[in-house]
């Protein structure tokens, strides 16, 4: 087998079994690394050669990834792309990313490795110090990756002209100024380099395909925007993008990519991975109109907010193939929501918006967080009751986490609140999960409440009746199978064991 010379080798690290435990076998998604894919397009348009290695899709351990690269590639620069499909996914993937870097350096100490992503951008100095990497990107990625690869290829070590770069020299850490973010996304990153990915491996979330539960492939997640205009306290999404970061691909560029995905890869199930899709009228309507003109039969889901769902959007979204909207409801307590800058809307408005979306023929996935700083048992009870009353077709229950790059992280450090022992501890579903405490409650009680809330919601007779009525007996039984999986929790096990001894 011949070794492939590439200017840049992008690596998507991760370990689904570590992150999701048994849920990874059947219920969670296997998502394509959408940002690595558009970064590859950027490099190609600059005239560079590029490859992508997707560890989760190929079911490779860090050691297997390193061996695969060693046997198949001769890269000028290896880039560990530690982004995720939600803000938390970056930090939770840092354990696998770091182990992969170490395995690579053990095979070839001369590999030059850059780490980019939400977590590295939030903690660039710490990442450079703690991980087996030569460089860290403190911003978005492409404008750092390409000039660095060019310098390394030319044999130069004058990194001062490379923007947003942290690097080591003589045991010291140095950094360069940031540059403006990419502005013309259509011209500089027009779609993903899907041909570099194992497209047959990707699988949609179970709920995304409740209308066709046995047809979760092919699947793709893609961007129509970068950044987010909102500043929710618990979110770290703006760490690599900055404060004025929200940029859009044009509807024409988006439909060109959908054309490719449908016609070349036969994709029907699509996630718009944007932090906030249902927002700008011209953008939303322009994309919907172009999909409708094509007559595609798609199954799309995207994020919205309670206060961005307008009546004029819904009919177009449904006609274009948007079958699900994800709402960040977060808490049943307005006081708690106000404390994390999550919009000025009340419980009645939340319930009205959920019903309005459902009446338009679009399913809703509600996202809820337990353990925000002002949370008590009473307010967490309000959140669970709101979830039960809203009776969305699916729900995600999270614990509040102090993700690096978020205001919660800064607050937790200032207060001296305990943080996870390892980066995998920031995963919502891992054995090592350790959420943030609240002002009133310890972390273990918040985690325990979250897991019990999950079980109560998905075994609730009203919810199961809704599922059976809308999706049939097979999905009803699928949900019950999901509830039989009990996540193992180190934090709970340790506390319970101490209580037994006492």
N-to-C CA distance: 61 Å
- Structural class, judged by helices and strands? alpha/beta
Largest sheet descriptor: 7 strands, mixed
Provide the low-confidence segments as ranges: none
Rg result: 22 Å
CATH architecture of the largest domain: Alpha-Beta Horseshoe
Q: Going by CATH, what is the homologous superfamily of the largest domain? A: tm_1862 like domain
- Please tell me what the overall shape is: globular
Number of domains: 2
Count up the helices: 22
Count of β-strands: 15
Which percent range describes the beta-strand content? 15-25%
Q: Looking across the biggest beta sheet, what order are the strands in? A: 2-1-3-4-5-6-7
Proportion of helical residues: 40-55%
Query: What is the CATH C-level name of the largest domain?
Result: Alpha Beta
Q: What is the CATH T-level topology of the largest domain?
A: pyruvate-formate lyase- activating enzyme
Overview of the molecule:
Helices cover 43% and strands 16% of the residues. With 502 residues, it is an alpha/beta fold. The chain has two domains: 172 residues, 3-Layer(aba) Sandwich (Rossmann fold); 258 residues, tm_1862 like domain (pyruvate-formate lyase- activating enzyme, Alpha-Beta Horseshoe). The protein contains 22 helices and 15 strands. The chain has a seven-stranded mixed beta sheet with strand order 2-1-3-4-5-6-7, sandwiched between helices. Strands 8-11-12-13-14-15 form a six-stranded parallel beta sheet. A two-stranded antiparallel sheet has the order 9-10. Helix 13 packs parallel to helix 14. The model has no long low-confidence stretch (mean pLDDT 90). The N and C termini lie far apart (61 Å).
């Amino acid at each position: 087998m011949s070794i492939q010379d590439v200017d840049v080798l992008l690596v998507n690290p991760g370990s689904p079994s570590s992150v999701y435990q048994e849920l990874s076998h059947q219920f969670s998604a296997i998502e394509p690394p959408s940002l690595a894919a558009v970064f590859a397009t950027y490099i190609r348009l600059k005239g560079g050669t590029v490859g992508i290695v997707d560890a989760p899709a190929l079911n490779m351990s860090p050691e297997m990834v390193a061996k695969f690269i060693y046997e198949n590639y001769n890269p000028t620069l290896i880039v560990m792309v530690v982004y995720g499909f939600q803000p938390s996914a970056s930090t939770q993937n840092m354990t696998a990313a770091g182990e992969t870097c170490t395995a690579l350096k053990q095979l070839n100490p001369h590999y030059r490795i850059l780490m980019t992503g939400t977590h590295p951008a939030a903690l660039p100095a710490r990442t450079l110090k703690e991980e087996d990497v030569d460089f860290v990107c403190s911003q978005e990625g492409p404008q750092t990756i390409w000039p660095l690869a060019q310098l390394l290829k030319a044999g130069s070590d004058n990194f001062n002209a490379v923007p947003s770069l942290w690097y080591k020299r003589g045991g010291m850490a140095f950094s360069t100024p940031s540059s403006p973010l990419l502005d013309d996304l259509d011209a500089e990153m027009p779609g993903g380099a899907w041909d570099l990915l194992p497209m047959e491996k990707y699988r949609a979330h179970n709920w995304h395909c409740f209308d066709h539960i046995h047809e979760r492939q092919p699947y793709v997640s893609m961007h129509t925007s970068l950044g987010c205009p909102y500043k929710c306290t618990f979110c770290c999404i703006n760490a690599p993008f900055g404060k004025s970061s929200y940029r859009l691909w044009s509807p024409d560029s988006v439909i060109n990519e959908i054309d490719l995905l449908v016609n070349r890869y036969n994709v029907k199930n699509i996630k718009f991975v944007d932090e906030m899709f249902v927002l700008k009228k011209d953008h939303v309507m322009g994309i919907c109109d172009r999909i409708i003109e094509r007559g595609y039969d798609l199954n799309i889901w995207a994020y919205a907010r309670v206060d961005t769902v307008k009546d004029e959007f819904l009919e177009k979204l449904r006609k274009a193939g948007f079958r699900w909207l994800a709402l960040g409801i977060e808490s049943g307590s307005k006081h708690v929501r106000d404390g994390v800058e999550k919009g000025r809307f009340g419980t009645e408005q939340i319930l009205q918006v959920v019903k309005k979306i459902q009446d338009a023929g679009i399913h809703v996935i509600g996202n809820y967080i337990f353990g925000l700083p002002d949370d008590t048992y009473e307010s967490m009870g309000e959140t669970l009751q709101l979830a039960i009353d809203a009776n969305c077709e699916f729900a995600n229950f999270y614990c509040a986490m102090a993700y690096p790059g978020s205001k919660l992280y800064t607050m937790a450090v200032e207060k001296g609140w305990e943080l996870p022992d390892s980066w995998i501890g920031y995963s919502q579903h891992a054995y090592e999960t350790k959420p943030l405490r609240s002002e009133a409650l310890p972390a273990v009680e918040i985690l325990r409440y979250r897991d019990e809330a999950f079980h109560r919601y998905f075994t609730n007779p009203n919810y199961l009746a809704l599922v059976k009525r809308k999706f049939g007996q097979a999905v009803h039984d699928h949900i019950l199978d999901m509830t039989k999986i009990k996540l193992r929790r180190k934090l709970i096990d340790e506390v319970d064991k101490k209580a037994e001894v006492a």
